[in-house]
Amino acid sequence: MKDLKSQASKSTTPGKGGLTPEIQSRIGHQLRAMYDDVVRQGVPDRFAELIKKLDAPGGAPQVEPDRGSNDNNNGRD
Amino acid sequence: MPLTDSLRDDILAAVPSLRAFAISLSGNADRADDLVQETLLRALANIDSFQPGSNLPAWLFTILRNLFRSDYRKRRREVEDAEGNYAKTLKTQPSQNAHLEFEEFRGALEKLPQDQREALILVGASGFSYEDAASICGCAVGTIKSRVNRARSKLAALLYVDGAEDFGPDETVRAVIGGSGG
């Protein structure tokens, strides 16, 4: 929030040091738009498959092992 | 911790944003997916070192970022002008979903120094706190803040200021500037 103070001081002439809040928000918007464009593509099959395959210890695709036999995780969910 | 079903689901859930981060870093979708794949392999191989309850996305982003860094250094040796090359790749790629504005923005993002680019993306797009971003990049929180600020200033200069000074503000910039004119 300290940062905003210096940036707001000369709000109509964005230069190297100062950014108008409007331009800042425009940059933020474009950045997220670009990023979310990829995020919206979801998980490509390639990666879903990969994680499924490597689920089992040893990294070989195999039938679900008898998991949870010795599950000493401390009850967090 | 062991790879539980829920941990696996959490890793999967992080994949879309890992890809977005990787594409923003590398500017190249194919390379980005290779990076994500390598990240997942590393993560799964080292899953025992993940602390339950800690920030899984931050952990994964750290792995991806480090991979990108070492890969980048390697490529830099191979290709003299790495950055110029990526920029060229970008320009010749047909824009599929992205319209012109996206391309322009991407191009400007490519021109940022890598430190600044990753800081800006982590904070401004991935939504990490400054603290998480600092831990992902292995630097101080203040360093991240200043990188983000410099990145924003440089983007503004590349995208909005040059055009405004040379040709007068276009409609968008005028609207943006006019908003605060009061």
Shape of chain A: rod-shaped
User: What proportion of the residues of chain B form beta strands (DSSP E)?
Assistant: under 5%
- Count of strand segments of chain B: 0
Largest sheet of chain B: none
Q: In oligomeric terms, what are we looking at?
A: heterodimer
Number of helices of chain B: 9
Residue stretches of chain A low in confidence (pLDDT < 50, at least 5 long) are: 1-16, 59-77
Form type of chain B: globular
Protein chain pair with the most extensive contact, residues per chain = A-B, 45 and 51 residues
Computed structural class of chain A: mainly alpha
Order of helices and strands of chain A: HHH
What's the architecture of the largest domain in chain B in CATH terms?
Orthogonal Bundle
Order of helices and strands of chain B: HHHHHHHHH
Average pLDDT, all residues of chain B:
81
The helix content of chain A is 40-55%
Distance between the termini of chain B: 57 Å
Mean pLDDT of chain A: 66
In short:
The complex is a heterodimer of chains A (77) and B (182). By secondary structure, chain A is an all-alpha fold.
